[in-house]
């Protein structure tokens, strides 16, 4: 059935939908990377200490948590496409305000609403792709989300680097504004592209059927898969929804265990994707390498290199995810991250502190830390980076998808915020080596949680996903 379906699939339309939907991932990545080069500017403009900097950077993530939670439910009520359009508008306004305001309060508010846009796009883009993609290649197509996230990160690193070089550093002026402000204003470009491109893709057929709009859903499915397959899918999708009520948040609940087992499984991958500390490198890459004793210029160059390595790793995932499955990739990733994080922890533990309390490392130790960091990034982006988004987009039954994404998306961004907010204080208080040992421990634990609790979803139709109707 899968082969026949794929043969009849309008891949031009599917590819266009994937390309547009994953611009949401690019926005997510771009903002994550843009803040990397603005640390010094934020401190100078708003007189921030380390805790204030952590809160200012992390305010986006509070918005992400709110956006991810509200988007899942709102998408069940208003549609996937409409909520993504709202996200593009929010992101655009947030980028412009962050780039020009002199008020710290207004900056944080704009960052929060920009975060809502990022959080909404982060959960809706993979879910939307899963709802239109053929089962046989769904993992590969949903993995494009992570490629776009890393592309956004890398693009931001490159733009930040060029702006800082043109101005002398991130505090230097360009056209009357400090370079770090241009790093935020540049985010408006992908936001406008996303907003315009969304006007040319259809609504999710699963949402249309859940809303009683079967004629529209049949039309979309016919365009995607042809009339015969469209008719079969309409019947299957209709049967996957509860007959007595539309999708609602209470659908994720189960007597005795609070949440349905499939939702607990989603929480495991949502939380541990962050507990391994990946966003310490992405959000604080420049700061991290400065702590390791390198210059701002060298730190920004290493960020760009890490981004390129990450993109290459994601293409490996795209080639493997529909062949070997989701679970094996997660297990390999957990093992590889444990080893590479352990090596980073060891390298940092061998460094010394100067009179000012800054970490100093000799060239050999620095090289070990850089190699280990990039091996870690490779393992993350071959596994947990893209596979988490693939699974969250596909693992839940139709009836649960919006509500389960709300719960898991909220958890993922709260964990992201906790890691990013705590890193500056932990690095300066505990030291880099003990901090990285905590991330190493999380990677180690994640291996056993995946082995015990995660289902394999490779090749299954969305209507075959378990967790609803007593499963």
Describe the protein in words.
The structure is a single chain. The chain has 471 residues and is an all-alpha fold. It has one domain: Growth Hormone, Chain: A (Up-down Bundle). It contains 21 helices and 6 strands. It has helices at residues 2-8, 11-21, 23-34, 39-46, 50-78, 80-100, 104-132, 138-167, 179-185, 188-197, 205-210, 214-225, 227-240, 261-275, 278-291, 296-324, 326-349, 363-382, 384-394, 401-429, 432-453; strands at residues 173-174, 177-178, 253-254, 258-259, 352-353, 359-360. Strands 1-2 form a two-stranded antiparallel sheet. Strands 3-4 form a two-stranded antiparallel sheet. The longest helix is centred in the first third of the chain and has 30 residues, at 138-167. The chain is globular.
Tags for this model:
Growth Hormone, Chain: A, mainly alpha, 471 residues, 6 strands, disordered N terminus, 76% helix, two-stranded antiparallel ribbon
The CATH first-level class comes to Mainly Alpha
SSE string, helix = H, strand = E?
HHHHHHHHEEHHHHHEEHHHHEEHHHH
Overall residue-averaged pLDDT value: 87
> Structural class per helix/strand content?
mainly alpha
The CATH superfamily title: MFS general substrate transporter like domains
What low-confidence regions span 5 or more consecutive residues with pLDDT below 50? 1-5
Q: Categorize the overall geometry.
A: globular
> Would you identify the CATH architecture?
Up-down Bundle
Q: Kindly report the spatial arrangement of strands forming the biggest sheet.
A: 1-2
Rg (C-alpha, Å): 22 Å
Total helices: the number is 21
Largest sheet: 2 strands, antiparallel
Q: End-to-end span in angstroms?
A: 24 Å
């Amino acid at each position: 059935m899968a082969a026949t379906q794929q043969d009849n699939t309008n891949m031009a339309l599917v590819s266009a939908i994937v390309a547009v939907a994953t611009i949401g991932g690019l926005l997510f990545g771009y903002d994550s990377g843009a803040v990397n080069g603005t640390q010094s500017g934020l401190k100078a403009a708003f007189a921030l200490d380390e805790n204030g900097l952590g809160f200012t950077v992390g305010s986006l993530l509070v918005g992400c948590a709110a956006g991810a939670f509200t988007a899942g439910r709102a998408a069940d009520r208003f549609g996937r496409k409409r909520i993504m359009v709202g996200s593009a508008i929010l992101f655009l306004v947030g980028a412009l305000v962050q780039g020009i305001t002199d008020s710290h309060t207004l900056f944080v508010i704009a960052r929060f609403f920009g975060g809502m846009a990022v959080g909404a796009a982060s959960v809706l883009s993979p879910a939307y792709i899963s709802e239109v993609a053929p089962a046989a290649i769904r993992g590969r197509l949903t993995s494009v989300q992570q490629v776009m996230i890393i592309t956004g990160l890398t693009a931001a690193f490159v733009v930040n680097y060029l702006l800082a070089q043109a101005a002398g550093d991130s505090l230097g002026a360009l056209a009357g504004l400090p370079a770090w402000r241009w790093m935020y204003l540049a985010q408006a470009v992908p936001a406008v592209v996303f907003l315009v491109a969304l006007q040319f893709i259809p609504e999710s057929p699963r949402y249309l059927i859940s809303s009683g709009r079967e004629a529209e859903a049949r039309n979309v499915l016919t365009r995607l898969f042809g009339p015969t397959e469209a008719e079969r899918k309409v019947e299957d999708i209709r049967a996957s929804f509860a007959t007595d009520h539309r999708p609602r948040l209470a659908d994720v609940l189960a007597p005795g265990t609070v949440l349905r087992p499939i939702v607990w499984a989603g929480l495991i991958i949502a939380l541990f994707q962050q507990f391994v500390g990946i966003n310490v490198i992405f959000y604080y890459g420049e700061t991290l390498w400065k702590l390791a004793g390198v210059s701002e210029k060298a730190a920004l160059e290493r960020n760009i290199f890490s981004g390129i390595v990450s993109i290459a790793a994601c293409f490996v995932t795209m080639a493997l995810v529909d062949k070997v499955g989701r679970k094996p990739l997660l297990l390999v990733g957990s093992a590889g991250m444990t080893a590479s994080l352990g090596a980073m922890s060891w390298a940092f533990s061998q460094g010394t502190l100067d009179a000012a309390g800054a970490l100093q490392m000799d060239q050999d130790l620095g090289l070990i830390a850089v190699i280990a960091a990039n091996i870690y990034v490779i393992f993350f982006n071959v596994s947990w980076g893209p596979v988490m988004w693939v699974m969250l987009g596909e693992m839940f039954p139709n009836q649960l998808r919006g509500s389960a994404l709300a719960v898991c998306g909220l958890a993922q961004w709260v964990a992201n915020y906790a890691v990013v907010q705590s890193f500056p204080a932990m690095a300066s208080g505990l030291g880099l080596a003990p901090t990285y040992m905590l991330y190493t421990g999380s990677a180690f634990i994640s291996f056993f949680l995946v082995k015990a609790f995660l289902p394999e979803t490779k090749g299954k139709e969305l209507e075959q996903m378990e967790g609803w109707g007593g499963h």
